[in-house]
Amino acid sequence: MCGIVGYVGQQEAAPILLDGLRRLEYRGYDSAGIAVCGDGQLRVKKSRGRLQVLSDLTHDGADLPGHLGIGHTRWATHGEPNDINAHPHVSQSGRIAVVHNGIIENYMELREELLRKGYRFESETDTEVIVHLIEMYYAGDFRKAVMKASSRLVGSYALGIVCTDAPDTVLAVREASPLILGVGIGENFFASDVTALVAHTRNVIYLEDGELAELTPDSIQVYDCSGHPITKKASR
Ligand code: GLU
Q: Is the pTM of this model over 0.90?
């Protein structure tokens, strides 16, 4: 196990992401990382080892200004625990970042397809295919690209995704891996586990397999696997 967290709102994202990851530490991990969007830029820091290493590296998040982001603690399944294999993984354009818990079973075929199309891989992870697939399908509609990429994946995944072209939006996708949305006021969250959310909100929405959530500071919209919007109730 391991964890993912996401934030969009008025506050600085990085300290909230680091705090959320700290609350997920009990799940076990070998590396950690965060990506924050601010001023049209994507800033990423990741590192092998304890979360404290990442906190120190980022001056408790102060080095990554911005109001939305994603975070990850990794339990390596594909590729050794090192800085390069740590998440987030970033697309070649530098615009899209992904965190992933789980295993992509068909990553070898996807990797070969992407290599043939000219994508370069930096890591040994199964996860990296996801970010390149999203970029391959991206033609201006961030959500559609993520939906299309997800439809190609076989395996288990909880994903958090950001794109510099969508500076108010964080996407979360779930398939056979836990993911919970936290509903705030002027801010919204997601995490693998409710323990990462309790400091911020008690209103939560449980994502089901195949669902995608689009979070902005003031809204949460969930879509089914065909892209149709669905209404879900928050529970306390
Ligand atoms: N399979 C991915 C990797 O090895 C994600 C592992 C995880 O769930 O942290 O990087």
A: yes
